[in-house]
Specification:
Strand 2 (about 30-35), helix 2 and strand 3 form a beta-alpha-beta unit. The chain has an 8-stranded mixed beta sheet, with helices on both faces. It is elongated, with a radius of gyration of 24 Å. Helix content is about 55%, strand content about 10%. With about 290 residues, the protein is an alpha/beta fold. The longest helix has 29 residues, at about 170-195. It has helices spanning about 15-25, 40, 55-60, 70-80, 80-85, 100-115, 145-155, 170-195, 205-230, 240-255, 260-275, 285-290; strands spanning about 10, 30-35, 50, 65, 90-95, 115-125, 135-140, 160-165. The model has no long low-confidence stretch (mean pLDDT about 95).
Length: about 290
């Protein structure tokens, strides 16, 4: 189907859903939306976007159905109705709702049982970036479905990509990215709290953190290489040196009156890494093994 004539439905018009609908409309597609709170959906009407009175009415005219709701409970309550199950055969559902991998698999099975195609997606951009060339969305599920709708999906994210046939892959990748994003941001907050308690300017800290990003990227690549080779020896700096440095930061946090919980956890994980190393002088990536065991 020509992407410029394909009708698209968007179920859920919160901040992200509205951004997705706007991007699709800007791409020249006919768009129909529905939201439980109708006032949020009606804000899109002046843009030429059709507002439906029910989810079923929104889905009827479309071959491609975009779902972006709060959680999978909302997805199930909205879609798993006799009215919608009677009309979704032959359509493709692309679900951007965040949730556990098991929920994506269950939604895929439900869609298949009702004759619908299903892709799951993970959005790695804020609403303000949607529709831009640098916006990123990862999709998983049947590759043929992704290719069929790729042109439309790229209206929402210039960096739209397919990552694998396992439908829950995008869910798991999203969860992994949560760990990376929030872990990094919280670590910055930890350091900021100590410097702020000592009445030191934070702009220099931000500048130094930005300069450290290439080192972080190097360490991430090194971790994958060492994991693949099952060899964590190296010539940069062994884990004992890193542990001493983090213990120093932990002591500074306590002395400043700032929270030290994060640093205490880091020390414990490093100590587990040293135990796993069994007396060998291993590099920081050996801690990956500690995370693989609960």
């Amino acid at each position: 189907m020509n992407a410029n004539t394909q009708h698209v439905s968007v179920i859920g018009t919160g901040l992200m859903g509205s951004a997705l609908a706007k991007a699709l409309k800007k791409g020249g597609l006919p768009v129909t939306v529905w939201n439980r709170s109708k006032d949020k959906a009606e804000q899109l009407a002046p843009l030429g976007i059709t507002v439906a009175s029910s989810a079923a009415d929104a889905i009827k005219p479309s071959d491609l159905v975009i779902v972006c709701l709060t959680d999978f409970q909302a997805v199930n309550e909205t879609l798993r109705t006799p009215e919608i199950e009677a009309i979704i055969s032959g359509k493709t559902i692309v679900n951007y709702t965040s949730g556990p991998a098991r929920d994506a698999r269950e939604s895929s099975a439900w869609a298949t049982a009702n004759g619908s195609g299903y892709l799951h997606g993970a959005i790695f951009s804020y609403p303000g970036e949607i529709g831009e060339p640098n916006a990123e969305i990862a999709h998983s599920g049947p590759e043929a479905l992704y290719k069929k709708h790729e042109s439309a999906l790229r209206f929402m994210a210039g960096q739209s990509r397919f990552i694998g046939e396992e439908v829950a892959y995008s869910c798991l990748l999203e969860r992994a990215m949560f760990s990376f994003y929030f872990g990094s941001v919280f670590a910055f907050y930890q350091g900021s709290a100590v410097l702020d308690a000592e009445n030191l300017p934070l702009d220099e800290y931000l500048s130094s953190a930005e300069k450290l990003l290439p080192v972080v990227a190097f360490t991430l690549k090194q971790t994958l290489e060492m994991h693949e080779n099952d060899d964590y020896s190296g010539t940069n700096s062994h884990l004992g040196v890193h542990l001493a440095a983090v213990k120093g930061a932990y002591e500074d946090a306590i002395a400043s009156g700032a929270s030290s919980d994060l640093l205490e956890t880091l020390c414990k994980m490093m100590e587990r890494g040293i135990e796993i190393a069994g007396g060998q002088e291993c590099e920081l990536p050996v801690i990956f093994k500690a995370f693989k065991k609960s």
